[in-house]
Amino acid sequence: MKKGGSIVLVVAIGVAVSFLVFRKWYGELTYDNDKPLLSEVSNGNEAIVNCTMPSLISSQRSRSESNVTANLDAGYNALVSGDKSKLLDFLFLLRTHPSPHEFMVHKLLSANYSEQRILLDALSLEDENLRFSVLNGLFHESTPQAVDLALDIVKKHHFSNTAIEVEALLIEQSYQMDNSSHIADIARLLNLRSAQAYKKEEIAQHMEALLQHQNQDIQIQAIAGITLYGTQLSLVSAIEKLLFQPDLALRRAAIKAMYSVEASWLHSNLIHEVEHIAENQSQENSLQELAKDLIHFHGL
Question: What is the pLDDT of residues 139-162, one digit of tens each?
């Protein structure tokens, strides 16, 4: 009995010790919820790697972007200093930049005139979507210098895939502008695009709105735009507005627009005014000759 009792006692002690060891181990395991699980530490330092990996990737990305910008700046400096052999290198580096249009906008606005010409020439070799992004970025800078550069891009660069977006952008920007010369320039650019324009109705409506400006250049571009994009009715209305103005340039623009009006749309008030101009010896000579030619053209 004593021997059997000893065996039972030893087993009981062993069970108790095992329970205490398990309890201590489990308590340590669950003590801190922020510590990695056992499966995470089973491969040495894997959990540490998992914790530091996002910051490591972010740091590497930041260094990579800094290197790209530094290399691109070096390529830009070489290009604008007159080394044309660096053009292709510059364009390649530009495409690796995380935000190439922002880089170009920044450089264009901080460059002198000759450097701007070099950059605009380089931009003409770039992807059309990038050119449009640069154009959009310059317009949204809203400064006179930025708008001048944007209009220069529209004048000198060809847009085909983004032509609709360019037209919409020009119309939108024109409505938001206060600078009369920029408004007139945009109207002129839209008129030059008449052969391939997509948004003809929107442009016609825009030109009718521009006619209300009390600015000679804007009104001349507006009636030219209505001639290109508008209806006969809207054109006759524009002619009525400008033909009776004292400003000779506006009257001349109105008479020129009448060449595009069908004779049946020319009502008596317009005809009488043109005849008066043609017969009035005190009128400016070129305006008088223009009126006479119009009468002959329409057989009035």
Answer: 999 899 999 999 999 998 889 889
85 residue type, one letter: S
Cα(126)–Cα(5) distance, integer angstroms: 94
Q: Which ranges in the chain belong to alpha helices (H)?
A: 2-30, 38-41, 46-80, 87-96, 100-110, 113-124, 128-141, 144-156, 163-176, 180-192, 200-210, 216-229, 232-243, 248-258, 268-279, 285-298
Residues in the chain: 300
Contact 87, 79 (CB under 8 A): yes
> For 21-42, what is each residue's pLDDT tens digit?
455 544 554 444 444 443 444 4
* Phi, psi torsion values for 259, nearest 5 degrees: -65, -25
Based on its alpha-carbon atoms, the radius of gyration of the chain, rounded to whole angstroms, reads: 38
In this structure, is the dihedral angle defined by the CA atoms of residues 197, 199, 202 and 204, taken in order, positive or negative? Answer: positive
What are the residues whose beta carbons fall under 8 Å from the beta carbon of 284, sequence distance 6 or more? 248
Counting Cα atoms < 13 Å in the Cβ hemisphere of 67 gives 6
Q: Does the pTM exceed 0.85?
A: no
Give one DSSP letter per residue of 182-244, joined into a string. HHHHHHHHHHHTTTT-S-HHHHHHHHHHHTTSS-HHHHHHHHHHHHHHS-HHHHHHHHHHHHT
Report the C-alpha gap between 165 and 195 in whole angstroms: 16
The pLDDT-based confidence of 18 (bands split at 50, 70, 90) is low
Contacts of 184 by beta carbon, 8 Å cutoff, 6+ apart: 215, 217, 218, 221
Q: Do 93 and 102 form a contact (C-beta atoms < 8 A)?
A: no
Model pLDDT, residue 20: 52
**CA atoms of 199 and 164, how far apart (whole Å):** 7
